Amino acid sequence: MTKVSMTVNGKSVSGEVEGRTLLSSFLRDGLGLTGTHIGCDTSQCGACVVHVDGRAVKSCTVFALDVAGAQVKTIEGMANPDGSLSVLQQAFQDNHGLQCGFCTPGMVMSAAALLADNPSPTEAEVRHGLEGNICRCTGYHNIVKAVLQASGQDVSKIAAE
């Protein structure tokens, strides 16, 4: 076992991990941050996306030891300081950009990274930016609308698919 330390959602944390412990497992099992979902363990679904030093990363593909000293942000860290939903989270709720909710944390984290890089994406850019995330329930249309709304764009003219 090796001690690993990092900052998660603005708080310094540490724990004992084996060399093979994935970041997703450390977050869920070691820190109790169960909003990071594990859907496939093969980096196909995107349910485990978190931010590491500001970059969207599939946490099931990264060893916890490899992010020692890093700044990690999970879905639990996305809310406003007062606990209210962030603009992006509220847009997901407003546009019903979720159904079962399993993919939602990864979608929100990927969308946040997309908007950080491109504050005013087109519909096509949103769809491309979310390619690594699989949703089996929504058909993606309302997720795309949510991301566009969060970017400040008028989504009332986007036709239903």
Automatic annotation (TrEMBL):
Pfam families: Fer2 (PF00111), Fer2_2 (PF01799). This is Carbon monoxide dehydrogenase. InterPro entries: 2Fe-2S-bd (IPR002888), 2Fe-2S-bd_dom_sf (IPR036884), 2Fe-2S_ferredoxin-like_sf (IPR036010), 2Fe-2S_ferredoxin-type (IPR001041), Beta-grasp_dom_sf (IPR012675), Diverse_Oxidoreductases (IPR051452). Residues 2-78 form the 2Fe-2S ferredoxin-type domain. The keyword Nucleotide-binding does not apply. PANTHER family: OXIDOREDUCTASE WITH IRON-SULFUR SUBUNIT. PROSITE patterns: 2FE2S_FER_2. It comes from Fuscovulum blasticum DSM 2131. Keywords: 2Fe-2S, Iron, Iron-sulfur, Metal-binding, Oxidoreductase. The keyword Isomerase does not apply. GO terms for molecular function: 2 iron, 2 sulfur cluster binding; metal ion binding; oxidoreductase activity.
